[in-house]
Design goal:
heterodimer, A: alpha+beta, Rossmann fold, six-stranded mixed sheet, B: mainly alpha, MetI-like fold, 13 helices, 78% helix, globular
């Protein structure tokens, strides 16, 4: 079973155009800022928004392809969806909620109840089977919603912000448990989230969505090491530059340039770890190839490190120790020298 | 803060604040008197000694029976076809929807007598629909129970439609999406998710609809006539008795009032009070 999707549709001001694949047993997190089109993408996969172009195919079966006039209605897709806020039917008990999909698929009443009970037991909710959603805690409601989505034995699992509705205290425990259930799910699973930690904890692979477009598709390690958008770079705390490579030199749109240890050509990204950015009150001498003068725009304390925002020919963020902040008197602002070793600048194709 | 203000200003502020509630309270009192005093008068002026006689008179019993049967039938008909109409207005998009909706809700503001005339022209013996219906099936609607039900439905159903439509629009539609992803077709989702979720609006709409049907006068007397025992409902009986025996008219009015109040209060406690 593999999900193959190319989703193109217009919804208000959002133009969604995304293509990606999810393998069997793989969990992919769709990560992006608010309004990037994450939920719209999920709803389109579930068949709740029709595609304008593209296709959705599951295990080789075409679920939707407007150009070929194929469209399977949501109720015929066997796609399990856990919606944001869970949306448990308020007029039904936990067990009736879980049994709903089975009943709708023609399973007999007694059998549906039995299977729903089994799912609730598996979710450690056996004693809450008769309770209505308003009597359940956030974590319990989340598990009922997951049981309801899984009870129909879906071929594809879609989760929309599965943890956003939970209190911070329970979020971590629920996340661990959710991960365990996702690991057991045999088909492809897609998790939509705006929280990078959640994405990293739940998913094997990240798909980054911005303004309805896919900007990056890769493993968690790849995305955190080599971000391909400003938003991701900020998220993982790296300096990201984009420019034209000419040998070891990367020329930036501002006219400035940086030098790396590797050679490249064409449009490239250059990423710099803030910890590799050195700050000096006097012009440094010695080996660094990248030296320029800037001004301290702000200092932000983060535990035992401080992030220093330096404006200049190449605006960068430096991460230094609180001791260095005091020694260089960075809190007072003023002009500062920035130096970065060429070996600390990682350059890759844009 | 108030202590820091000069005394004069405090006094003026306080006076301005209190003058407004007095005016509003006075107007509210006028409204209350206007609404409640007729009911009080009804109770005070009722010839209670004639109660047994008035209630047991065959004419009154027939009218009460007809009123209950016809208004419940109108309610049933309004619910069965009005609920889907509300759903269509709230959920579907079709050309001419705004016009269709306006026309369907028109009876709410139409003078009932006009409605009765219109019904006669549509469903009367020589009406637009009534004539072919009579020729094909032999059924003639006017001046029978069917006419009473039709007149009451015509006037009362729009109240159910607007109430349910508002409920459907206010409902979180994502619940219907959930039902769809769980494999429920539109009919199953409507029955098992939409209807239970709009139940409070549906109950409120049914109560309004039934009350309106029970009190229907103008359209009924125009379209169904005033045949004692056949089409003479309680409001019609009250009107007739007003010229014959004021006491009986008052007692019949009170019975009608009590029936309405009992039903509305029981509905409120069972369905609306729990919200």
């Amino acid at each position: 079973m593999t999900l193959r999707a190319s989703v193109a549709l217009q919804l208000g001001t959002l133009a969604l155009d995304v293509a990606f694949e999810v393998a069997d047993g793989e969990v992919v997190a769709v990560l992006g800022p608010n309004g990037a089109g994450k939920t719209t993408l999920l709803r389109a996969l579930a068949g709740l928004y029709p595609l304008e172009k593209g296709y959705v195919s599951l295990n080789g079966t075409l679920l939707e392809a407007p150009e070929e006039r194929v469209r399977v209605a949501p109720e015929g897709r066997a796609v399990g969806v856990m919606f944001q806020d869970y949306l448990l039917f308020p007029h039904l008990s936990a067990r009736e909620n879980v049994a709903f999909g089975l009943r709708a698929r023609g399973v007999g009443k007694a059998e549906a109840r039995r299977r729903a009970g089994e799912w609730l037991d598996r979710m450690r909710l056996g004693e809450h089977a008769h309770e209505h959603p308003r009597a359940l805690s956030g974590g319990q409601a989340q598990r009922v919603a997951l049981a309801r989505a899984l009870a129909i034995e879906p071929r594809l699992l879609l989760l929309d912000e599965p943890l956003a509705a939970l209190d911070v205290e329970v979020r971590q425990a629920v996340r661990r448990e959710l991960r365990a259930h996702l690991d057991q799910f045999p088909g492809p699973a897609v998790v939509v989230t705006h929280a990078p930690l959640e994405a990293a904890a739940l998913a094997d692979r990240l798909v980054i969505l911005e303004h309805g477009r896919l900007v990056q598709d890769g493993s968690v390690a790849e995305v955190t090491r080599r971000p391909r958008s400003e938003w991701v770079a900020r998220l993982v705390g790296l300096n990201l530059l984009r420019g034209q490579a000419r040998g070891a030199r990367v020329e930036l749109p501002s006219g400035a340039s940086v030098v790396s240890a590797s050679r490249a050509s064409g449009e490239v990204f250059a990423v710099i770890d803030p910890r590799a950015v050195a700050l000096h009150r006097r012009q440094p001498d010695g080996s660094p190839r990248n030296v320029w003068r800037g001004s301290v725009e702000g200092v932000e304390s983060q535990g035992d490190r401080a992030r220093v925002y330096v404006d200049g020919a190449v605006p960068v963020v430096a991460e230094v120790t609180p001791a260095a902040v005091a020694e260089l008197n960075l809190a007072g602002g003023g002009s500062i020298w920035v130096s970065i070793k060429a070996t600390e600048i990682d350059v890759y194709d844009a | 803060m108030r202590q820091l203000l000069p005394p004069g200003q405090t006094w003026r502020t306080r006076r301005r604040v209190s003058a407004l509630p007095v005016a509003l309270g006075g107007l509210a009192l006028v409204a209350g008197v206007l609404l409640i005093s007729p009911l009080v008068a009804l109770v005070v002026r009722a010839p209670w000694s004639q109660l047994g006689e008035a209630v047991t008179s065959p004419e009154a019993r027939a009218a009460l029976r007809l009123s209950v049967i016809a208004s419940l039938a109108a309610l049933a008909l309004s619910t069965v076809v009005g609920m889907p109409l509300a759903w269509a207005f709230a959920r579907l998009d079709f050309p001419g929807k705004a016009l269709a909706r306006a026309l369907c809700l028109l009876p709410m503001v139409l003078p009932p007598v006009v409605g009765g005339v219109a019904l006669l022209l549509a469903f009367g013996r020589r009406g637009l629909i009534g004539q072919p219906l009579g020729e094909l099936t032999g059924i003639t609607l006017p001046f029978g129970l069917g006419a009473v039900v039709l007149a009451e439905t015509f006037v009362a159903m729009p109240f159910l439609v607007v109430t349910v439509e508002a409920g459907l629009r206010a409902m979180d539609r994502r619940y219907e999406d959930v039902a769809a992803t769980l494999g429920a077709g539109r009919w199953t989702a409507f029955r098992r998710v939409t209807v239970p979720l709009v139940a409070p609006s549906l109950i409120a709409g049914m109560a309004l609809c039934w009350a309106r049907a029970l009190g229907e006068f103008g359209a009924t007397i125009t379209f169904a006539g005033n045949l004692s025992g056949r089409t003479q409902t309680m409001p019609l009986a009250v009107y007739i008795q007003l010229e014959r025996d004021l006491g009986v008219a008052i007692l019949l009015s009170l019975i009608l009032t009590v029936v309405s109040v009992v039903v509305l209060v029981s509905l409120r406690e069972r369905f609306l009070g729990t919200r």
